TrEMBL record:
<feature type="domain" description="Phosphoribosylformylglycinamidine synthase N-terminal">
    <location>
        <begin position="130"/>
        <end position="247"/>
    </location>
</feature>
<dbReference type="Pfam" id="PF18076">
    <property type="entry name" value="FGAR-AT_N"/>
</dbReference>
<keyword id="KW-0436">Ligase</keyword>
<dbReference type="InterPro" id="IPR036604">
    <property type="entry name" value="PurS-like_sf"/>
</dbReference>
<keyword id="KW-0067">ATP-binding</keyword>
<dbReference type="InterPro" id="IPR040707">
    <property type="entry name" value="FGAR-AT_N"/>
</dbReference>
<feature type="domain" description="Phosphoribosylformylglycinamidine synthase linker">
    <location>
        <begin position="274"/>
        <end position="322"/>
    </location>
</feature>
<dbReference type="GO" id="GO:0004642">
    <property type="term" value="F:phosphoribosylformylglycinamidine synthase activity"/>
</dbReference>
<keyword id="KW-0547">Nucleotide-binding</keyword>
<dbReference type="GO" id="GO:0006164">
    <property type="term" value="P:purine nucleotide biosynthetic process"/>
</dbReference>
<dbReference type="InterPro" id="IPR041609">
    <property type="entry name" value="PurL_linker"/>
</dbReference>
<dbReference type="GO" id="GO:0005524">
    <property type="term" value="F:ATP binding"/>
</dbReference>
<dbReference type="GO" id="GO:0005737">
    <property type="term" value="C:cytoplasm"/>
</dbReference>
<protein>
    <recommendedName>
        <fullName>Phosphoribosylformylglycinamidine synthase N-terminal domain-containing protein</fullName>
    </recommendedName>
</protein>
<dbReference type="Pfam" id="PF18072">
    <property type="entry name" value="FGAR-AT_linker"/>
</dbReference>
<keyword id="KW-0658">Purine biosynthesis</keyword>
Amino acid sequence: MKMAGVREITAAEFLQGTTGQTLFLQRNYSIKPSNLLWGKLCNPSRMGYMSNTKGAPLRCSSRPQPKAMASGNVPTSLVNEELGLVEKPAQEVVHFYRIPLIQESANEELLKSVQTKVSNQIVGLKTEQCFNIGLASKISSEKLSTLKWILGETYEPENLATESFLVKKRQEGLNTVIVEVGPRLSFTTAWSSNAVSICQSCGLTEVTRMERSRRYLLYSKGALQEHQINEFAAMVHDRMTECVYGQRLASFGTSVAPEEVRFVPVIERGRKALEEINQEMGLAFDEQDLQYYTRLFVEDIKRNPTNVELFDMAQSNSEHSRC
């Protein structure tokens, strides 16, 4: 039997089934007692025909696991940088929206909680999730189809779109407001790292970051006050790792800059300087701490501490950091 010529296929061709693939058993294989699976083979000379009738033992050799391969159109730098997972600045951020964010039962429970804790004027609630995708460069329509395939629901592809579903669900006679929350932009989430890894394994090397945000559409009989909107936002996100998105993300860049390192003049001003920085930064130094650190830097180390050092000491003193 002659075999057709073998060629490389793209990830999109494989996922969309545009190229026929054939699975076959290798005829010339080595048999070792340690990797045999025993069954029955009616005719050992014909590997393609199997039967449950009595016959010779069936021996199937274990196949080696396929190894990763870099094709010719993948830059060498991506291979050298741990499969290209080193994040690069995104030149563009595209968005895909998917419904629902939560199931109907969870949606009803959230609505009841919101009516109790925020306002009984809120009469309805709808949700969606948004995939904010950073691209290093433009992607082809073929790769865009692959990206949609990754993000879409297998049996409900119509629930994924490039435009918000919530914007289309505003109702006349009711006030509406959309609240969006998601990860802080100053760090990349673990979810994003996994998502980028999957995309790059599918040939989407342009994807550099992907963060998932949650969007809520509130229906109310009257206009909601700003403090009520803030109360709702506080209910649905973690302030430590997440924040409220005031508008649709256009970039993953952030204007937040780290505080400058500065010296606290303990040598010149003594304990008074420590008391002031303690109050300013909320270090929670008690009487014993103030006495000890004043003596440590003035008499032993003989230099002024930095605000970074004092903050680190405060964390080391906290209950959960002690051994």
